[in-house]
Design goal:
Blueprint lengths: L4 E4 L3 E5 L9 H5 L19 H9 L6 E5 H5 L1
Antiparallel strand pairs: 1-2, 2-3
Bound molecules: iron/sulfur cluster (SF4).
Amino acid sequence: MDGNRKYSNEDITVLWQPKKCTHSANCVRSLRQVFDPTKSPWIEMDNATTEEIINTVNNCPSGALSFTFNAENQA
Ligand code: SF4
């Protein structure tokens, strides 16, 4: 098992690859209500807008966070 985790809302699915995560905590600082390592699951997709989540995912310095639009997954 690679330990990768997926988290979805109605628009997007966020992939977190823990082996790439450098624990810079950029995501936690920028969107704490979604990215909270003290909670389980540590990513709570319902606590912000899709746009806010995308912005935060795109600022992950290690590439541990990525996302796909759900419509693409169904194609
Ligand atoms: S921003 Fe990326 S590298 Fe930093 S803690 Fe979050 S997931 Fe890990």
